[in-house]
Amino acid sequence: MTQQLCVVISPHVICSHHNAAATTLVKMWPIASLLLALALQGVWSETSSNDTKVDFPCKVVDGDHVYDLSELAARDYWKYDETLHTGLFQSRVMYMSFCHPLRNAPVVCEGENVGVCESKKDDTGSEVPLGSRGQVSSVGPAITEDGWLSYVFESGAKCNKSIHDTTYKTYVHLYCARDTASETSGPMLMSSPGCERTFAWMTKAACPVKAEIKRESCTVKFSNSDYILNLHTLHTEKYYNVSGSKAKYELNFCGPVTGGHCGSDAATMCDVTDPSAPVVFGTLEAVCTPDEAPECVIEDDKGNVYDLRSLRKEQGNWEVLDERDDHKDQLYHINVCGQVNEGRHYHCPPGPIGACQTSFDALTAHNLGFLTSHPSINEDGSITITYTGGDQCQEGKHARSTRINLICNDIEYEPVLVEETGTCEYIFTWLTPAACPRHLKKGTNCLVEDPLYGNMYDLNPLRNQIKDYNVTDGEHDYLINICGPLVSKCKGEGQSGVCQIKGDEQFSGGMATSNITFNDGTLVMNYNGGTGGCAGNNTRSAQIIFLCDQNESGRDGPHFFHEDETCTYHFTWLTMHACPPFSVVDCSVVTANGTIYDLNELSSSSMNEEYSTSDGNKKFVLNVCRSVVHNKESRCPYNAGACVIDLKHKNKALNIGKVHSGPYIENGNLKIKYSGGDPCGNSTQLSETIIQFNCDKEELYAYPQLVAQEGCKYIFEWNTPIACPMPLIDHTTSAPETKGNCTAKNDFTGYVFNLNPLKKKTGYEIQDSGEVHLVLNVCDEVDTERCPDKGTGACSYTHDDHTNIASAGKANAKLQYHLGFLSLYYTGGQACGNGEKRSTLISFICGAEDAPDIPVLIHEDLDKCIYYINWYTDLACERRINCFVDTWEQRLDLTPLIRSTSNYEVSNPENPKQKFYLNVCRPLNHIVGLNCRPGSSACLSVSESEALSLGQPITTPQYIYSDEIQMIYSHGSKCLTNSDIGISSRIIFICDVNAGKGSPTYKNVTHDCQYLFEWRTALACENRQEVTDSGPVCQIQFNAAKTNVNLKPLNRPDGYSVKFADKEYKINICGAACGESGVCTSDGTSFGLSSKSDLNWDYDKLKLMYYGGDSCSDALSGQRTTIIYFSCNMSVGLGYPVPDPIMRDLECAAIFNWETNLTCIEAIYNMDDSSDKKPINSDPVVPDSESHEAEKPSVEESDSDNPSADQQQKEPESAYSTVSAAISSVLIVTGIIFVIILVLFKSERGQQVVSSARRFFGMRGTSTLLLDDMM
Q1: Is 1249 within a domain?
Q2: 985 and 938 in contact (C-beta within 8 Å)?
Q3: Domain check: are 64 and 195 in the same one?
Q4: Where in the sequence is the signal peptide annotated (predicted)?
Q5: How remote is the C-alpha of 1117 from its chain's centroid?
Q6: Residue 459 has what pLDDT?
Q7: Is 204 helix (H, G, I), strand (E, B) or coil?
Q8: Nearest in space to 330 (alpha carbons), one of 406, 420, 233
Q9: What is the pLDDT of residues 98-108, one digit of tens each?
Q10: Which residue of 290, 496, 915, 989 sits 20 to 30 Å from the alpha carbon of 147, by its own alpha carbon?
Q11: Are the beta carbons of 172 and 95 closer than 8 angstroms?
């Protein structure tokens, strides 16, 4: 609270800034100043952040009246925003300050002592300074003839709007307004001709104050204040001694110096340096008055807002009965944010008192304290209100005072007297919702701060500079953008932020804004002022609620939620930009015997698990391996993996454990621990949480349960099938008892791997660089001519001894699935020299697209007599992760960095013995002699033959908005420094246009065993020159067939020639058609590189896309592309590409349809027992050359890729199995239903049904996808 201390020594008034003697006096006044501070409870010693040194006149005197603008000068600046005159993005803003130059204004105008600064807003909403419009007045305010005040800012910036050499000047006319409502109105611009600005302002600060002091006993009341200050608490029975370096004083307050040396019974202060000749100063009064009413809305240093206005009573007071046996006749009357009101049956002492005490029996009333200070916020979040300077008690030793402690509570209770201290302080406790913080804050420029935890949210990365977001509700389309206006125009104007479209009609859904509101964990953006006349006379508006999803970039845009009756369109937007900082750790653990536990499915990026106690008082909020997701219901500390929310005390959240590390095994139990939380109660011990996960395959609705609380430790149990183990590798087990069928299933996805096509009776021959020679088969025995022992799955011999052949393991078909690879383990072979029986472990890995499809001997363990074989094969592929990220402008593709024959080798400059091996988006290629876990994308060699896995490629790269791409490999080996967590690695690709492909460098390793690498490359740059690469995508999972679709049979050395309009296209699959292009025209124009391809299912069609063709200005990416749709047709064999007629309207894209039996379930499973399990591929049926202008392939080309006619004639007529017949029946019924739907589709009702279905299932039609891809 801003205060001023004056010492009045009759007949003189001495203030510290007027007379140096007062300064000397205060310095020599340690006892009195201390007592004064105690009496005022810090009122005048605590100064608000707005206190300023007044460098310019702020007052003017007219007779016995004073005009004082200090209240206006207390602010750093006043703001005037002319948004209603010229529109949001062409408006001007004026910043103004009185009696001091502008401070902390959002914009800065050049010049000295600038008092008025003008700016304008550009198209993005940012402010651009226009210049000074006047300096702070050196003469201060002036009184006009009409009795109002005038304040003039002169000598601003040079004005070019006049033919004379002049500067800007600003006039402010201030009119007296006694009502407090006008205080917040601020200045209003009345005119701005040429180089002058004229404002009018209705304000209480312009009202005159009578220059007199009213004194009544030992209370002081200023005429411009409603409050009285009682200084009797400073009175002493005798006097105070105050000594300086050269003088001695005796003084008293509210009474004379008694028994001293002043020589006068009325003296209240005298100089007794010479006791024989005392100098009496006269009557002493200290004047210290509050210059403003106690605040009712207060804010703490974290930005939490507390609103106590609901506690103020305009009539009556809060009544509290004294419950003490000997005081039950006493009643306490309390008010907040104002003085107690007069009662009917009692009379409190007069004056601005906040509390009083009355007695029924004694008919007395005591002042329990004046309104002398603002409410204060304590460290524990409670609020204290103090009233001091009340009536005397205990024979004048003390003055009565009141302390009210407000505590946040959902339910409103009455105040309760809890104590009367020995110094006559009455302490009340009050449980009330008014003491709960309102976590509400408004921000600009798409920035807003969390007032509770201080995080700054920035939504600017969601601004789409290229095109607007397109959202549909099934009936209307909406164009939306944030942090600025739409890229496209709405109704011909360019200031809308939302545009509703229906056919040819367009309606503005609200003007663009960059203002955002943080509302207790939720970010909200409101668009107002749209097109009127909606549903009567409503003006259209829109609201977007941004919700935290730690894995979503938000680039997919908002989703339509609903439209209310006032024509407000509501949208939701999931994005990581609505999340505060969070932590994520590896969520898997590998045991010593090779078993893996993977809890990633329980780790949610958008929601939490909650558990409430039975009494409803507490709610526990948890996440797994990551921080709690922040939302309105979970206002937990940012780094908490678990927290407890006190439901009785709103927003009180206790961090009961931070995310440090992933799951671990303890005494056979799978657990995760969050430690280092908030202190527990009054203890210094920190809270921690332990969750034990129990394997329960029958539990369908799993959730955590609190089973125990031991001091500061919270223990939960979670029964879930996700906690069940998956086998990794167990070298100690013997051969499986059952032979199996050479298939393995991923239990989480249901995908079935089938390696039967790799069976080969004559075996596969492997020769290493040393002496070992191996022959092996897959899931079956090797012919006895190669391996003499019957039932042998692998045998070995030395290069120079073909007669001494030893069994390296018995054959079996028990294929096992592990995260990242498949394994086949042959055991029980002949004994080695050390007595151990030979065994062979074959790991089948989904490697890079062009990795050699052959088995390789990686390592021979001479101690355990195990041969380790790695085999890269597409049959081990369930999916390969995409190796690109999409920005607003283009796709940044890292596939050129994928290696299929070698690896990137990185040394550790701090430890030259360490060597890292890396690949990008794919597992490492063979490293003969180094036994790293199969499927790893990064390894660290720790010895000549052993290595630590640094993780597998599980997730796709992520773009992190600053010309950087992040790649994380997880599920590595156990951390050497903490066996409870797994190793991971992170590669940061940094844009460097001059680096070419670049190469990785090692940076460091974090405390949680994550190895960090940095990779400077041009591939991470937008608008860069493309880097060539190889590696087309040729295979994709076919869920309906429980296998993969492989397009390799469609590859031809010379490709396919297709004519359309006046162009001839050359097309190839799984390879280049011309140069490096997968599709090109006869003149050499590239429509996409074979190395930059993407394969996806689009409903029942397989969609192949080629990117990175020649430049084309109309394309969003700036390059030509190709889309090929493959559809099932059993009768056409491999088929032939046919141009889509829509190509006539496209300049930058080529689109082809291709019917083929490769995508048919019948073709995949229609095999005889002796075949190699490959689809039946007949000669392609070439489209009519006249209608489609396609070139028929030669007989030689057809024979090279398809079975001969004789082979096809040998297929039995019963080739279609019972399964195929059943499928055919289903297809016939489906066809009939399709005809019915087609008829419905042509009707208006049918269109509505289809639109509703698409909205419900979140689907878009093929045409919609096509147009999206072309835009």
Answers
A1: no
A2: yes
A3: yes
A4: 1-45
A5: 28
A6: 93
A7: helix
A8: 420
A9: 998 988 888 88
A10: 290
A11: no
Burial 558-571 (b: 16+ CB within 10 A, else e): bebeebeeebbbeb
Q: In the listed set 164, 187, 210, which residue is the last one of a domain according to the structure?
A: 210
The C-alpha atoms of residue 496 and residue 527 are separated, in whole angstroms, by: 9
Count other Cβ atoms within 10 Å, centred on residue 1254: 15
Q: Other CB atoms closer than 10 Å to residue 928's CB: what's the count?
A: 12
Residues 268/255, Cβ–Cβ less than 8 Å: yes
Q: Is residue 29 part of a domain?
A: no
| 50 C-beta neighbours (distance < 10 Å), count | 11
- pLDDT for 738 beyond 80: no
Q: Is 1207 among the domain residues? A: no
The answer on 329 and 407 residing in a single domain is yes
Q: Report the alpha-carbon distance of residue 912 to residue 826 in Å, rounded.
A: 38
Q: Residue 525: enclosing H or E segment and its boundaries?
A: strand 522-527
Number of domains in the chain: 8
Same domain, residue pair 888 and 822: no
Q: Are 692 and 716 in contact (CB under 8 A)?
A: yes
What order do you get walking across the sheet with 127-135 strand by strand? 78-81, 92-96, 114-121, 127-135
Tell me the two tokens of residue 393. Answer: 């008690």
In a domain, 25, yes or no: no
Lowest mean per-residue pLDDT among 127-131, 804-808, 992-996: 992-996
Residue ranges of E strands in 161-247: 166-167, 169-176, 188-191, 196-203, 209-210, 213-216, 219-222, 228-230, 240-243
Determine the angle formed by the axes of helices 1244-1257 and 1218-1242, rounding to 10 degrees: 120
E strand spans, 656-742: 664-666, 669-674, 688-695, 705-710, 713-720, 726-727
Q: How far apart are CA 1121 and CA 1268, in angstroms?
A: 13
Q: For 687-718, what is each residue's pLDDT tens digit?
A: 999 999 999 887 766 788 888 888 888 999 99
One domain, residues 568 and 667: no
Token pair for 390: 């009340």
CA distance from start to end of the chain: 60
Q: Which domain holds residue 504?
A: 440-578
Residue 90, classed as helix, strand or coil, is helix
List the one residue out of 841, 984, 1005 whose CA is nearest residue 911: 1005
Instruction: Say whether both 399 and 474 belong to one domain.
Output: no
Instruction: Supply the mean pLDDT for the chain.
Output: 78
Same domain for 950 and 868: no
Helical (H) or strand (E) element with 842: strand 839-845
- Residue 645 sits in the same domain as residue 722: yes
Look at the chain and count its residues: 1271
CA atoms within 13 A on the CB side of 1214: 2
Q: Last residue of some domain: 831, 846, 876? A: 876
Same domain, 832 and 894: no
**Left, alpha or beta for 567 (phi > 0: left; psi -120 to 50: alpha)?**
left
Q: Are 154 and 136 in contact (CB under 8 A)?
A: no
> Mean pLDDT over residues 520-529, rounded?
89
What value does the mean pLDDT take over residues 872-876?
92
Q: Which residues pair with 271 in a beta bridge?
A: 249, 279
How many C-beta neighbours within 10 Å does residue 1151 have? Answer: 19
The label of the residue with tokens 């209100």 reads 385
- Dihedral sign for Cα 243, 245, 248, 249, please: negative
What is the CATH number for 547?
A: 2.70.130.10
Question: Whose structure tokens read 């689907």?
Answer: 1259
Distances (CA, A) of 1069 to 1080, 1095, 1134: 12, 11, 12
Give per-residue pLDDT as tens, 902-929: 899 999 888 888 899 999 999 999 888 8
- Which residue in the block uniquely carries the two structure tokens 């653990």? 589
Q: Which helix (H) or strand (E) holds 1240?
A: helix 1218-1242
Helix (H) or strand (E) holding 428: strand 425-432
Which residues, listed in sequence order, are joined to residue 645 by a DSSP beta bridge? 619, 653
Q: What is the pLDDT of residue 705?
A: 87
Amino acid identity, residue 1005? V
Q: Confirm if 99 and 114 have CB atoms less than 8 A apart.
A: no
